Amino acid sequence: MAHNLLAGKKGIIFGALDDQSIAWKVAERCVEEGAKITLTNAPVALRMGAINALGEKLNAEIIPADATNMEDMENLFSKSMEILGGKVDFVLHSIGMSLNVRKKREYTNIKYEWMQKTFDISAMSFHRMMQTMWKLDAINDWGSVLGLTYIAAQRVFPDYNEMAESKALLESYARSFGYHFGTEKNVRVNTISQSPTWTTAGSGVKGFDKFFGYADKMSPLGNASADACADYCISLFSDYTKMVTMQNLYHDGGFSQMGMNPAILENDDEV
Ligand SMILES: NC(=O)c1ccc[n+]([C@@H]2O[C@H](COP(=O)([O-])OP(=O)(O)OC[C@H]3O[C@@H](n4cnc5c(N)ncnc54)[C@H](O)[C@@H]3O)[C@@H](O)[C@H]2O)c1
To answer: Is the shortest distance between the CB of 139 and ligand 1 below 6 Å?
Structure first.
């Protein structure tokens, strides 16, 4: 149900690939809550076409931008400000891709060129996005910047591979840029640490189906869905969370606080 929480606000949503994407759900919820948005993704993702349907449905323009390319990023923010009629109030970074995971290289046999590319796409792009906003003065006072992350930044999940370090870097950028943005522009920067979620990026991790069930059982509330994540994003874009910044916020049904859940032992054949 919509409550007009983002009435009059403008935003940019990165990373809607298909209707399973977390960013897809966030974009839909933002518009339901009264925001005007632009959508962006890598040119290669745009060629897959699904995002066009979302753009039409939400009356949102789609601006291609490879998140590793500075010119694309500048063009995205300049064009978005033109289309939306001024600076933005919120931005979602929902980008993740690991070359070593995709090409099934083990963590103990990493190819470093791929690792660098992974960091560039999945983490440095967050800094690049914020630096672009900073330089172009593209975000309003009391705006909100969000990135999506995973608890493998703090704890060991062996199959998450180099994405663990990527997420640690992403979360660190949120704190460091959060200082600058907070001090100079009253803008908040946070990351949401989301439960395992059935998406293209999520299901690319080895053993994802079994792990999804494990996390669901371990979490007192069960895994948080992409829809629930979208609701949480709305609250963080809204004016009800103005003083929350530089935080890594767990949205995981309680998983991050659990040590052991008897439910896992009772049903260990099914896990
Ligand atoms: N799915 C999960 O289990 C899970 C859990 C926690 C956090 N996350 C994070 O949520 C975010 C969104 O992922 P998702 O699960 O919705 O999967 P997804 O595959 O739908 O989204 C990933 C997006 O990254 C985009 N992308 C890849 N390379 C890019 C580039 N060079 N430039 C611009 N965009 C690029 C893809 O096109 C895609 O839209 C990611 O940061 C992911 O790590 C996912």
So the answer is: no
pLDDT at 270: 54
> Tell me: the pLDDT tens digits for 7-37?
999 999 999 999 999 999 999 999 999 999 9
The answer to pTM > 0.90 is yes
Residue 268 clears pLDDT 80, i.e. is over it: no
The pLDDT value recorded for residue 194 is 98
Enumerate domains of the chain plus CATH numbers. Answer: 10-266 (3.40.50.720)
Give the Å distance between the CA of 230 and the centre of ligand 1. Answer: 14
| Alpha-carbon gap, residue 266 to 118, rounded angstroms | 38
Cα-Cα-Cα-Cα dihedral sign, residues 227, 233, 234, 235 = positive
Q: In what order do the strands lie in the sheet with 88-93?
A: 61-64, 36-41, 10-14, 88-93, 139-149, 188-194, 248-251
Q: Indicate if ligand 1 lies below 6 Å from the C-beta of 21.
A: yes
Query: Which segments of the chain does DSSP mark as H helices, in order?
Result: 22-32, 43-48, 50-58, 70-84, 99-102, 112-119, 125-136, 163-185, 200-203, 208-218, 226-237, 262-266
d(CA 141, CA 229): 24
Burial of 184 (0-12, 13-18, 19+ CB in 10 A): exposed
